[in-house]
Amino acid sequence: MRSARDDQLVRPTVEDEVAAAGSELIGGPVGRRALIGAHWWTPVRVIALVAIGMFALGMVQKLPCYDHGWFFGATTQYTHACYSDIPHLYNGRGFDQGLIPYLDRIPRSVGGGMDYLEYPVLTGLFMEVAALFTPSGGSLQHREQLYWFVNAGMLLACTAVIVVCVARTHRRRPWDALLVALAPALALTATINWDLFAVALTAAAMLMWSRGRTVLTGVLIGLAAAAKLYPVLLLGPLLVLCWRAGRLRAFLTAAGGAVAAWLAVNLPLMFTHDATGFHIREGWAKFYTFSKERPIDFGSLWLFVSERTGDPLNDVNVYAILLMILGCFGLGALALSAPRRPRFAQLAFLMVALFVLINKVYSPQYVLWLVPLAALARPKWRDFLVWQACEVLYFLAIWFYLAYNGSGDKHQGLPMEAYQLAIVVHLLGTLYLCALVVRDILKPERDVVRRDGSDDPSGGVLDGAPDTFVLGSARRERHAEPTAGTRVAWGTGSHDA
Predict the structure, then answer these.
(1) Strand, helix or coil at 495?
(2) What is the enclosing helix (H) or strand (E) of 494?
(3) Which residues of the chain have pLDDT under 50?
(4) Which of 155, 26, 78 minimizes the C-alpha distance to 405?
(5) Which of 42, 203, 349, 388 is the 20 to 30 Å CA partner of 134?
(6) What is this structure's pTM?
(7) 437 and 350 Cβ atoms separated by less than 8 Å
(8) What is the DSSP letter of 67?
(9) Contact assessment for residue 269 and residue 275, using Cβ atoms and an 8 Å cutoff
């Protein structure tokens, strides 16, 4: 039986002290009798408009590069922290010449040694569509400016999709999406690269899972993985959670949809044929070969270790794979032995965070992968802002470090030692949020989302499902399982219908 409380929206300015303090800028916490959503200004619309405003501020932050930094001066785009891959790759990957990604080889004179586009298929399509909408007249600089602007418009649409999906994933907690909309790291990194496209597809997949649409969830995960590799990691948490809840059919349905969708967009470009038969197309495989051969790069744990020890870490792929395997086993054990089955968003955040922490590169825009997941996994303003402060610090540090190395004897920027410190802060910030999420899993009564007795608002078929397979101490807690439509007083085993 649903209570009136089931339909009442959670108000962060009432439940979160930092949100309450911040609301003083716009009149203070919402009143007890305030009519939320009774007029045009619904939470979702407000959040979408805030996200658009923050995205616009991020575009304004790129202005020094739009007119000058991307084209003139060795370090201007770094000293103004306004670098973007987008204008550089318009010419550097042959889009200005009308080359077709994965099919046409990029001339060595413009590719900088990259003979084919090094992005997955759907991201390549996104880039190609933006190139088709870019006017062909004028100088190359003018077309690169317009190409960035067209991409920014398309990425703005992706941002709106992300915040709307996050706002609707937890039905009673739409205001948690304000964390995403106001995230400073999102505004600063949104137009560095094309990651927001995959993030939007991933956010839509999580929304569909929360609604019990398992096939569509899988299709969206497959499409997201065809735009960026990381979304496929969501299948891992789904497998373990569905196993614990006895909902393996739902997982298999989602996984089948993901495989089918990924193949549908990749197969047309995967193979080529000659007199000797079918072969994997070199252009299609470029993303995968580049990822394998890529050396350790900026922002990563491995770069810090390499620079501090002087070891080039030539076997870094082996180290990263082993750590990833160990981490996956650890998360699996956590999910199966926790007092109550973790929420999907919690385990998804931990899985993606594990991947970025041990990856060979931790680029500034990778924070975009984590922002929506963090808002769903740990919607606590203080902790979210601490993490964001670490990300903003690293965002500034990477550009100032590049400026230091590119300014000759002037050395304008951060030296190596300061940049290494920024890497440590960057990694610790992510680990800090991970530790809090793990604590919430081990002590469900500390989980902000479960504070009112909810089980897993983003869990779809998992929400309220009893456990069928658990490990260790979780066996002693099975008396506290909720069933659909009930609330749980965590730790007491009492149910409130």
Answers:
(1) strand
(2) strand 494-496
(3) 1-6, 27-28, 31, 479-480, 483-497
(4) 78
(5) 203
(6) 0.91
(7) yes
(8) I
(9) no
Distance CA 216, CA 435 (A): 31
- Alpha-carbon Rg for the chain in angstroms: 23
- Note whether 470 and 478 are within 8 A (CB): yes
* Angstrom distance (rounded) from CA 202 to CA 227: 10
Rounded-to-integer distance, Cα 263 and Cα 255, Å: 12
Run of H or E including 398: helix 381-406
Quick: pLDDT tens for 211-241: 999 999 999 999 999 999 999 999 999 999 9
Tokens found for residue 386: 């601490």
Closest by CA to 419, choosing from 395, 455, 438, is 395
Residue 331 in contact with residue 350, Cβ under 8 Å? yes
Nearby residues of 80 by Cβ (< 8 Å), 6 or more positions away: 64, 65, 69
Q: Which residues contact 432 (CB under 8 A, 6 or more apart)?
A: 383, 386, 387, 390
Amino acid 224: pLDDT: 98
Contact 136, 339 (CB under 8 A): no
| Nearest C-alpha neighbor of 18 from the set 439, 387, 365 | 387
pLDDT digits (tens, 9 = 90+) for 316-345: 999 999 999 999 999 999 999 999 999 999
- The answer to whether 340 and 480 are in contact (CB under 8 A) is yes
* Other Cβ atoms within 10 Å of 25 Cβ, number: 7
Q: Please, are residues 417 and 308 in contact by the beta-carbon 8 Å criterion?
A: no
221, 205 contact by CB (below 8 A): yes
Q: Which of 450, 233, 243, 452 is nearest to 343 (CA)?
A: 450
SS3 assignment for 330-354? HHHHHHHHCCCCCCHHHHHHHHHHH
Q: What's residue 453's pLDDT?
A: 83
- For the record, the structure tokens of 257 come out as 């949809």
